[in-house]
Amino acid sequence: MNIEELKKQFVSKYGAGEVSVYFSPGRVNLIGEHTDYNGGFVFPCALTFGTYCLIRKNDKKSFHFASLNVENETDITFDKLTQPIGNEWFNYPLGVIAQFVKKGKTPDTGADLLFWGNVPNGAGLSSSAALEMVTGVAINDVYSYDEERVELVKMGQMAEHEFAGVHCGIMDQFASGMAHKDHALFLNCDTLDYEQVPVKLDGVKIVIGNTNSPHKLDSGMYNKRVAECKAAVESIKPFKPIKQLGELSWDDFLGLQDKIDDEVVRKRARHVISEIKRTRDAVDALKAGKLEEFGHLMNGSHDSLRDDYEVTGNELDTMVEEARKIEGVIGSRMTGGGFGGSTVSLVKDEAVDAFIEQVGRNYEARTGLKPEFYVAEVGEGSHKIC
Length: 386
Prior knowledge:
The protein has helices at residues 3-14, 91-102, 127-142, 149-164, 171-178, 221-236, 250-256, 263-287, 291-307, 314-324, 352-367; strands at 20-29, 41-42, 44-57, 62-67, 74-77, 111-117, 183-188, 194-198, 204-210, 329-335, 342-348, 372-376, 383-384. Helix 3 packs across helix 4. The protein is built from 11 helices and 13 strands. The strands form 3 sheets. A 6-stranded mixed β-sheet has the order 5-4-6-3-1-13, sandwiched between helices. Strands 10-11-9-12 form a 4-stranded antiparallel β-sheet. It has a 3-stranded antiparallel β-sheet with strand order 2-7-8, sandwiched between helices.
């Protein structure tokens, strides 16, 4: 759906008049999984598909939320802006508006909002962060608030915590809000220091494989991993004062791992700390043009997520196994929170068609699910379109 079609939909619902249009992208994380809420490094890039927000102030004391992706819509009055409503989709934009209100920025009048997204739901490509960020950027601009972009990122993360109940790290919102076209973000999730690294993949494509086994971050498994990482920190604290696992080097962990009595908790910590090292090494490899080394580190990332962090599952493992059988695949791993969702693979140009055909056929034969594939372009972060 193009911008003019979206505007017609807005006018059909809310009436004629000027309308502003904003966009925030989904993201794919090339490497660095489940490190963000542990104060480690991640390496995501924005995609060219995402979520659009059309917005216009109204003369009411309420916000009207509607979406072209789902049927249910709602009108929320000013006195109810800081409380989530059940498990509805509009809790994501509502949660962002609540963050403005909590900062003392109560709007003088309401607004009509219409959303449309082309990020596949449940694919693990961060449709929720795109929805949060597009709301934050739109509200900040339309109401002439003065929040810096990094602050909007933090507000999006808090909306996810408070209104969706998912104790996520900051990577998804940061990538959606801050990324540049044709670059990936090398982000320190503890300090929020970051570097825009050019993604130079001469003769190689990024191929996303959607397992069509939707991931469910709100199932409790994600929050359980967060708790297990905190338990690892508590076990290590008496021997080395740390607040997050990301403060430990790989050598530190090797010397301290026997202080973690719980074997499962030890495995969780091993993944996080080894993944932080892999992410650093992968960024160095990309800068040096060593794509084969980058792919090897991607493979190691998936294996660690499968064996130590246990967040992959049959569908993701099957997709990765089939991908690695294809000549011309440099590396393949799950991406996102896990428990379903998508894989990301680096595939040589001449192998892309065979990859999609053969991996798709074999994956469906083994799982009974029909996958979808996207040859990804690295897009721009949140911005106003018109």
